[in-house]
Amino acid sequence: MAYIELNEVTYTYPLMKEPALQNISCSLELGKFYGVIGENAGGKTTFCNLLRGLIPHFYNGKLLGDMTINGEDIRKIDVDILSTKMGYIFQNPFTQISGVRKTVFEEIALGLENLGVPKAQMIEKVIEVAKLLKIEELLLNDPNRLSGGQRQRVAFASIIAMDSDIFVIDEPTSQLDPEGTERIFEIIHMLKEQGKTIILVEHKVDLIAEYADEVLVFQKGRLLKKGDARTVLSDLELLEHGTMLPQAVILERELRLNGIVLPKVPVTTEECIDLLRKGDVGYESN
Amino acid sequence: MNQIELRNASFQYPNGFLANDDLNLIVKRGERVAIVGQNGAGKTTAVKMMNGLHKPCKGDVLVEGRNTKDYTTAQIARQVGYVFQNPDDQIFNQTVYAEIAYMPKYYKMAEKEVDKRVKEVAELLEIETYLKMNPFEIPYVTRKFVTIAAILATKPQYIILDEPTAGQDLTGIKVLTRVLEELEKIEIGVVTITHDMEFAANNFERVVAMANKKIIKDGNVRDIFSDDDILRQSKIKRPGIGQIADSIGLGKDILNAREFVKRYKEVTAP
Description:
The complex is a heterodimer of chains A (286) and B (270). With 286 residues, chain A is α/β, with parallel strands linked by helices.
């Protein structure tokens, strides 16, 4: 059943002439993992701001159309309550760190403290998420003196600690090395296994291909495509819209252009390796 | 002496944390070098030594023969421009134009020359349409291009890019690729920190792998990505298509789809 529904939603930021989102209609269900991709300035972050209620409650601007979260009109929704249901991890980890706490431990505990969680439970939770994100050794450090990658993990930890039902995550791995990136994806996958809903903006399409159920592609403020991950990510047309496709899809195209045909288009690296290993390959003369 | 040289350079933060241990590296003008390695390996500290933001606690850093210890950061920064990882650490002007014009004006260039430079670099980075806007009204990733433009407008001899592809789409990466080509033509040395292995493989012939405060290998991109031991130590991975090639036994040295197809045909030819 649809939990979040948008019907013909158009939004324009204050002082801007062009809308950042135009005629967006879609529905999102609980428990699914949605990958959000598309060119820069295509509307991905604005979409996140809308889901999180920052639009229209923090950003003014002009909002047209209808949107509901769990049946409630977004314009009337109580954002404080919404913020406990929906965790939001910002694109820029430098923005997320509160700047008012002296240690990483306190930074992660900040949200829980605001909710009035008892101290013992709070400490337990902070240690649990720190272990999960492998940042235990940073707990006593100053959050303002961390590297980009470390900040990104601390920002992630402070949202995970809130135990929301829905996570809206805007590019959580932009500052991370490949290992750190995979770790984040494993944690997101784990959250999904626990029944959480994930809405993830990410340029690393290879990982989206591996983990997401559905993919939404934004372009110039419009929702260009929405569908199951395999169908959307094997659509070569996206390359013309500034959107990268998985390496497996790029390789399949190059093979095909050279007369080497795989039985289907692989979207993940693993799948591509499987197909090539089986040797189930056809040849066409050019 | 047209080079930056790290000579047995080590750096320790005031809290006692040793971030770089005995680095030796030479980057010549007009050369492109990608630095790779896991978070915390010491990449950002190393490049901050190159532009004098950090002075080595042991060893020396020489920029075109000038020892960074004998000059202020401002003096060295004029030769070696540093584009921050986070654009918001760098931007402080009211318009994109003013941001890019700031340093050339500070260096007391004639107004006409300043205007010409702003327009040139804005065109190079495809941000001309944003010149009159407030930098904070434009997308985060475009702000990164504003910071690159602002540094290039000062005409440095070298430029350091810290994670330029983070968050960039295909179009943004194409712009960066073109910027690198242009910089090579005008003999500006480029040092890039990146976690994007496809970007490194497609745009850099020389790669420096760092792990645990040290440089563990400085060499040809193909040699680095072929070396399982180096990949393991620096916790990096081959480009995706290289991983596929390695997994099906086509070799460890494949960097892109074109090379993959060529090798595949050679191996499977009757």
